[in-house]
Amino acid sequence: MVKWLGLILLSFSANAASFEKYVPKLLKFEGAGYGIHKPLWGDKNFSRQEAVDIYRREYWNKYHGNYFKSQDLAEVLIDHLINAGEGKDRMNIKAFEAILGVEQDGVLSRADVRAANAYPYPDELVNSFVKYRVLYYRSRKLAYKYPGWEKRARSFFINTEDNDLSVADYDLPAELEEKFEHIALAG
Hints:
Blueprint: H1 2-14, H2 19-30, H3 38-41, H4 48-61, H5 71-84, H6 91-100, H7 110-118, H8 122-138, H9 147-154, H10 174-179
Helix pairs in contact: 5-8, 6-8, 8-9
């Protein structure tokens, strides 16, 4: 029985996204201080382990990271939530739900994750969300001061067999395209 349960857990973890795989990329993006926003988490210097624990508990676990089959999809979504938050009226989660084609209630549910896992081409979801992220960052007032935001978002783009495709070539749901139609996007 214990051996059988161990095999089930092993097969689950082999087909699931992993926080441990994401951590090096996350910490590279966040740099010195590990990106922990002190007014939110406390005015002190955080150790690497304290920062990792916060990211695991407050982001990866909260947004069901281990339940995604696609490492890339879990990372592109959760990284945006770390970097930009849920947004006003949870707009960043609603955008992800719109891309998935599920009800846009602004609460990332396990049912949403199951829908993402059932999607036959997760790379398309990743690249569509990268496009959303780029447009979102370009729409921010201080985007010109923080070019790293867009660079970070674009780093998740997955090159396909047709290497001529770029972020601009992906379509978003109509309401998102309309929201950002005033923003120029090339490449």
